[in-house]
Design a protein that fits this description.
This protein has 208 residues and is an alpha+beta fold. It contains eight helices and eleven strands. The strands form two sheets. It has an eight-stranded mixed sheet with strand order 2-3-4-7-8-1-9-10. A three-stranded antiparallel sheet has the order 5-6-11. A hairpin with a 2-residue loop joins strand 3 and strand 4. 26% of the residues are buried.
């Protein structure tokens, strides 16, 4: 119930109801496709445009997360991620947290899919989040610019996006992310069937 209340306040009632319905249906039948993308950061720096007044973005430490009033962020396994070397950048509007973007090293576990292995000088971007009431204002674009500017030059960055998440796909495409393949899963009465396309994905992805 607590998790549902958090989703209601951060994602809105429509998205929360959709999530609940999908969770129920998934017990019987479920099909989804996750696209994988790659990008190489060279020597570029991205302008962090002031997309909305009184918006600020900063990297925060584990102890700062603990004291932060941001339930949506705390739904994640943030302690493990931080202890594994992850970084989180939080957007504040009038000093209130409204969004976040994560960077991971070594590996990243994609919920419902599996664990993607990362090598030296490789990073994972995501998950990202913006409060439902503030989406469409360019906050996520600003978060990504801030995140990417903190990555070393000549680094390789991966991410995955559900094929139906058009806004996120557009956000990453603007920075030059290229599609390298996908993972598709069908679940029928508990029986799983996986389909993977893309050599890098086949090599790196350890299925759940």
């Amino acid at each position: 119930m607590k998790k549902i209340l958090i989703y209601l306040s951060s994602d809105g009632w429509k998205n929360t109801i959709t999530l609940i319905i999908k969770s129920i249906i998934k017990r019987l039948y479920y099909q989804t496709t996750t696209n994988f993308y790659i990008w190489e950061k060279k020597n570029e720096m991205f302008e962090n445009h002031q997309v909305i007044n009184n918006l600020s973005i900063k990297e925060i430490r584990l102890d700062e997360i603990e004291s932060l009033d941001f339930p949506r962020l705390k739904l994640l396994t943030y302690k493990k991620w931080m202890n594994d070397g992850g970084h989180v950048y939080v957007s504040f509007l009038n000093e209130k947290p409204v969004g976040f973007a994560w960077t991971h090293l070594n590996s990243y576990h994609i919920h419902g899919v599996g664990t993607f292995k990362l090598y030296k000088n490789e990073y994972w971007s995501g998950p990202t989040f913006v409060l439902n009431s503030l989406r469409g204002l360019g906050i996520n674009k600003a978060q990504l610019a801030f995140q990417f500017n903190h990555l070393p030059n000549n680094s390789i960055v991966f991410t995955s996006i559900n094929e139906n998440n058009a806004p996120s796909i557009r956000s990453y495409a603007k920075y030059g992310y290229k599609l390298i393949g996908f993972h598709k899963i069908n679940i029928l009465f508990g029986k799983r069937k996986h389909q993977i396309e893309g050599d890098i994905i086949k090599e790196r992805l350890l299925l759940s």
